[in-house]
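EI: anyone free to look at a 631-residue chain?
SC: sure, send it
EI:
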Amino acid sequence: MSDIIQLLPDHVANQIAAGEVVQRPASVVKELLENAIDSGATEISLIIKEAGKTLIQVVDNGKGMSTTDARLCFERHATSKIKSADDLFNLSTKGFRGEALASIAAIAHVEMRTKQENRDLGTHIKIEGSEVITQEPCATPKGTTIWVKNLFFNVPARRNFLKSNPVELRHVIDEFHRVAMIHSNIKFEFYSNGSELFKLPVSNVRQRLVHIFGGKTNEKLVPVQETTEILDIKGFVGKPEFAKKTRGEQFFFVNDRFVKSPYLHHAVMSAFEGLLQPKTHASYYLYLRVDPKSIDINIHPTKTEVKFDNEQALYAIIRATVKHSLGQFNVAPVLDFDREATMDVPYEYKNKTAQIPQIEVDRTFNPFEPDTKSSANLQKSVTKGQNTYNASFNKKVAPQWESLYSGLNTTTDNESDIEVLASKMQFESVANTEGLFFESNKAETTTKNVYQLQNKYLISTIKSGLVIIHQNRAHQRILYEDFRKQISQCKAISQQLLFPLQLTFSKSEVAILASLEEQLIASGFGFQNFDEDSISITGIPTLVTESEVSIILEQLISDIELEVPKNSFSQLEVLSKSLAKSAAVKTGATLEKEMQMHLVDQLFACEEPDRAPNGKKTYTTLSVDELDKKF
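SC: here you go
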């Protein structure tokens, strides 16, 4: 039998390695930005086109590379960061594998210009599919400029797995944020399709967070700082009242490297125990510094997962530190057993001065007059206690009870006028409407009842047995069809707000809402203006309350980010589903009898009453035969 094991060609091996390192344009952005930071750059510019599918360009003013290094950096396992296996446990730089540029060059057209400060000329290299096309000297500024064009040009199957441009752009922005948040001492610029998205000047960590996530972020932050023998922790956590429905702004940085750690995330969430509303997530931006020998960052090709030497100790320190910060800045409620609550001055009387009581005496009062009613009242008030005074002795004769019936003793002419007036009066009556599942005969209408079970299900009788309705999914179906019809026909009714509602979002979130402005207006929203990090709302749909607006828009942004549509029709679907999901009656809500009946009637008037917008069942039936089998 012939041998069947053979060595793979280099270009095939490079493409396989590229599949581990480069998953999407955001992966290329991460690797190139980290290389620019390792070069000692103080100014870095990121330029992309079509979410990085067509072009990714990174310009830095770092120390640059020599001609030999410029050619060697595109070879596999070529790196300047480590020289022995022991160096893997003492890393202080971003990249160290030596696979990033080699993997990128295997699946894209790469062009690089680089020059060191003490050289007159730099190096210009062009590579296509791991093959060097040209290498020549050139005139270029100090630093490195690299272009990555036509990503996955030779792997069309991988290119087909990429999402739409808005989705890929969102991933690129996330990677840019993770790098920029760590290095606030570096100036960053980000351009997409010729327009500026971010321009971050050199600042401290708090200012960098404000520049990235908006001006209102500053008031949401609570400082966190603690130094121990095994861990130095600093950063910020968000106040509980600003918690969001989505897990957007949650960041862990270990030794200036973004990592994902569900174990440490649980430590932070346990510190917020009892402070968050159900199904909300607090924000945190925590920077951890540990001994490089106590962690292993070489367990994943993207270097976003790390393994700690003593996770339990880190868990306890992070939980205690966050909990201490929340209590120190009066975010968490505390109990003071030494304070006497009875000595607290009421808020409305805190700044008031004492007023001297005024006593008025009726000097014309004559106790020998026949009317002794007032004196009897005086005697009663005195006998109740020494501190009770009857300060006014003015005699006020109450109107007699006969005055209540004055004018009723009228003539018969007036009575006839009243009868004529009463005959002309109209009284409002409630229409007797029958439900969809009930017969019109009298015997069936007596059983027309709806019952609520566990504040989750609605149970009603039908001719063949019972129908059990999921109230949340049923209301979602009703609202979904209402919103879809209103948006498509632009006939939504909007309730105007007396004062405009100001909501703050990040720049990317405002851009998403601005792209949906026309559809949101058609659904009943009214906007005054869109700023860089805030929007002003003047009108809301009639089915939405003012307190729910921020929740609905946050849910809408999350849904759009996860499922960005490619055409206006699917965009209408996503918008209608998101609005219906946010405004629907929640599980656990108690409904009045009229609301229960109204929801049942509306559900079975829908086009597709049996399915919720997410495809799940809204109701099920239980026939009499099935009930008989239970007994």
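EI: The first strand starts at residue 43 and ends at 49.
SC: 👍
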